[in-house]
Structure formats: structure tokens, C-alpha cells
Inverse folding.
């Protein structure tokens, strides 16, 4: 996400930080480049113009000119104005009040409503809700079957509708069934079209009137850029949206829709889809996203992912093992599986402050490497995982054959593990003084 914009801004800010003091011309030249970067990222022209005007007004004022670090102060202002442009703070779902609450998903065909319905259901279940998926698209071939399949894969209940039923009746019957069976949140997967038309809007307005949903969320494809922003405006006029979900954000290096959709429509971006996995739906936090765009990382999101993936009791047990130098290859594999649950390794590293994005591009850590390591460890016997020193020639061949790898791969893993254990031992022995000697700074 936002790779091209981040790269451009990084070079602009390096020049600004290179000046010991800043004058009006330095700032204007830098902001001209920031404006071009925003336009290249497909940010709405008026939005780009307004945000640069606001940044300039603050940047040529006292808070920068009298600052000891004027370059960093400009970056701080840009960060705050980008955050404001994207909505200032995260706005979650409002499902308070009548039960069951309902979330009506609307959007054009192909925007990702059905997969988003499943992801949203999974997200709500983690939040302690009891979601009920409702297939209300009776026009697109196999749309109902697709949602039923998604529900089965994620173990989420799905209302049993058919193409012979009217969309409003499907939603109303599902609402009644939800009350009877104790589901507290309906997720309505409505029909889409290749383009907006009166018949679609009339149907959606009928569902809105008949169900009175708690939330009406537009699902739009981030890769369509300003088209997604225009579509949001059109749906909002007809249905008064409560928020927006942008899908395929992981494939959108520019990010113009995410940056300008709140400023243009006035409606908050509530979620972003960041991959094909069922867990790849994230609440949108404008402040965190602004920090990521400006290369400051997103530590809070990293911590939240870690808390979801790593069990607290397991973490404490692991700490005791590390202190006693009892960290086995079995533990190594378990921890690696926990990390993989958090998402792509490159994405996780990108959330950490101070990580150079250009270095990450060159690093290209493949998740396949983790699959290979898991396969090697899984091909070992329990005794071999506990006592790696007994793994010699014949054992290495057996492990390589069993995991579909080579003896060189097995050697590489054992060497890395041995080095890690030496570092842990050194740290346990000498505390922070030993650790300091091992760090590259």
C-alpha cells in the first residue's frame, strides 16, 4: 500500500531535513513536490490542493521557523494534516440499539461484497458478536451459493435463501430467524450491477426502508482510484451511507481513493481489505495510516496483530524456556506458526518504525521459506527436535527426503538455530551488557 507515494515523500523530506534552517522558499519547493506526489497517487485534485494549502499555512508559521529541527517539524505537520484528510480518527461500527443489528453491504458488481461479508462476519465473531450472513443477491449467477460456500469455510451461519425469493423478503425473513435463533448481527450481501441504474437503487432503498439497517457500508475496489470515490458519492446521495470499505488495498500502490474518499464524500473509511485471506480485513485508522505513508511505522497495529496471534500463557512459558536455555526446535516451529498468523512478513516489517522500505524491497522475505522450515522441523522425530546435536549425516538425509528439501537446507536451519541459542545463552549470562555487544548499532 502507498509504496510509490511513500518513496516520493521520503526523498522530499530528506531534502528538507538536510537544511539546517528553513525559509519560505525551501518549504514552498518541498510542498510543491508533496502536491505532485499526491496527484501522482491519484488523490482528488481539490483534496490535494486544500491539504497543501493547510500544510503551507502552518509550515511557514512560528512552529517551524522557530523550531530546533524545522525539517522534522514540517513532517509532523504533514502527518497531522494527512490524518485529518483521511478522517482524523477511526470510526467503528455502530451496532448499538435494537437487536439484531444489521449491516447492509452495497456496491457495484465485482467490488468484493461477498468475500467482504465473510471477512466482516469473522471480524465480528472475534469481537464477541454472533453474525448471520444473508445472501440477498438473486440476480448474479451462483451469488447465493458463493456466500454459502464462504460461510461453510469460515463456520459462519448463512440464511437459506433462493433466487425465487424477493431480496426484501429474504432480508426480512432472515431478520425474523436471527431473533428466533439468537444471532445479534445480520450482514446483508445485496445485489450489484456493472454500473449504477435506477432499478438497483430502488431495490436497495426498499431494503433500507424495510430493514432499517444499523450500518450501510459501500464496498468499493481501491484499485479503481477516483472512480471508487465517485461511486461512493453516487451511492451516498441515494442511500446516505454510514461508511466505506475499500477492498484490494494490498494491490494499490498509489492509494488515492483511501486518501481522498473521506474528504470528498464526508463519509468515513471504516475497513480496508488487504489480501485474500479471511483475516485480511482491517479497521481503518487514519493516524496509523498517515504514519505508515510517512515511513514512521504502525506499531499499534503490529501489537494488535501480535496479541491476536500469540497466546499470553504460551508467551510466558516461552520466556521461561528462553531463560533456562530450553528453547527447542519444536518451540521454534510453534513460534513461527504464530508469526505467520499475523500476516505477510514483509507487511509486518513495514509496520515497524525505522524500517527502510527500499531495503525491504531488496529483502523480499518469502513466506515459502517459512513453509520449508516448518516442513524440515516436522520431518524430525520428537527427540531430534529436543536435541538437535544428535542430527548427523544419515538423519539429515532422512529429514531432507521427508520434507522435500536438501541436506544443505537442513544444515542451514540447524546452523541458524545454533547461532540463535548461542545469542540467547550470552544474553541470559550477561544481561543488557551482552545484548548491547550483539546489536549492530
Amino acid at each position: 500500500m502507498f509504496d510509490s507515494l511513500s518513496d516520493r515523500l521520503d526523498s522530499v523530506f530528506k531534502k528538507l531535513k538536510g537544511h539546517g534552517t528553513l525559509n519560505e522558499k525551501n518549504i514552498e519547493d518541498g510542498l510543491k513536490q508533496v502536491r505532485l506526489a499526491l496527484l501522482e497517487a491519484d488523490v482528488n485534485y481539490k483534496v490535494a490542493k486544500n491539504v497543501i494549502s493547510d500544510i503551507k499555512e502552518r509550515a511557514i508559521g512560528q512552529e517551524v521557523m522557530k523550531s530546533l529541527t524545522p525539517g522534522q517539524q514540517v513532517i509532523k505537520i504533514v502527518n497531522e494534516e494527512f490524518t485529518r484528510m483521511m478522517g482524523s480518527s477511526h470510526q467503528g461500527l455502530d451496532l448499538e440499539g435494537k437487536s439484531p443489528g444489521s449491516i447492509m453491504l452495497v456496491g457495484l458488481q465485482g467490488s468484493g461484497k461477498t468475500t467482504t461479508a465473510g471477512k466482516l462476519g469473522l471480524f465480528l465473531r472475534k469481537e464477541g458478536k454472533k453474525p448471520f450472513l444473508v445472501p440477498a443477491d438473486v440476480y448474479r449467477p451462483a451469488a447465493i451459493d458463493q456466500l454459502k460456500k464462504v460461510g461453510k469455510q469460515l463456520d459462519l451461519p448463512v440464511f437459506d435463501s433462493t433466487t425465487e425469493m424477493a431480496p426484501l423478503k429474504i432480508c426480512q425473513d432472515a431478520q425474523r430467524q436471527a431473533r428466533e435463533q439468537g444471532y445479534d448481527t445480520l450482514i446483508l450481501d445485496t445485489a450489484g450491477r456493472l454500473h449504477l441504474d435506477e432499478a438497483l437503487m430502488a431495490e436497495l432503498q426498499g431494503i433500507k426502508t424495510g430493514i432499517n439497517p444499523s450500518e450501510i457500508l459501500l464496498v468499493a475496489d481501491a484499485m479503481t482510484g477516483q472512480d471508487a470515490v465517485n461511486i461512493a458519492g453516487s451511492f451516498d446521495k441515494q442511500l446516505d451511507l454510514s461508511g466505506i470499505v475499500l477492498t484490494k488495498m494490498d494491490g494499490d500502490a498509489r492509494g488515492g481513493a483511501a486518501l481522498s474518499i473521506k474528504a470528498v464524500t464526508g463519509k468515513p473509511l471504516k475497513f480496508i481489505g488487504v489480501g485474500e485471506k479471511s483475516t485480511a480485513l482491517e479497521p481503518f485508522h487514519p493516524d496509523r495510516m498517515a504514519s505508515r505513508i510517512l515511513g514512521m511505522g504502525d506499531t499499534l497495529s503490529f501489537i494488535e496483530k501480535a496479541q491476536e496471534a500469540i497466546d499470553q500463557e504460551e508467551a510466558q512459558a516461552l520466556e521461561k524456556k528462553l531463560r533456562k536455555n530450553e528453547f527447542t526446535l519444536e518451540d521454534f516451529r510453534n513460534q513461527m506458526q504464530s508469526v505467520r498468523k499475523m500476516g505477510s512478513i514483509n507487511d509486518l516489517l513495514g509496520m515497524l518504525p525505522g524500517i527502510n522500505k527500499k531495503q525491504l524491497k531488496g529483502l523480499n522475505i518469502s513466506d515459502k521459506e517459512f513453509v520449508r522450515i516448518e516442513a524440515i522441523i516436522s520431518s524430525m522425530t520428537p527427540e531430534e527436535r529436543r536435541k538437535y546435536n544428535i542430527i548427523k549425516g544419515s538423519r539429515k538425509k532422512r529429514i531432507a527426503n521427508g520434507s522435500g528439501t536438501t541436506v544443505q537446507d537442513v544444515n542451514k536451519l540447524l546452523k541458524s538455530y545454533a547461532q540463535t541459542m548461542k545469542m540467547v545463552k550470552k544474553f541470559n549470562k550477561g544481561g543488557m551488557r551482552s545484548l548491547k555487544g550483539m546489536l549492530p548499532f
Summary: The chain has three domains: 3-85, 101-296, 311-344+366-438. The chain is about 60% helix and 10% strand. Residues 431-441 have pLDDT under 50 and may be disordered. Residues 158 and 335 are 34 Å apart (CA to CA).
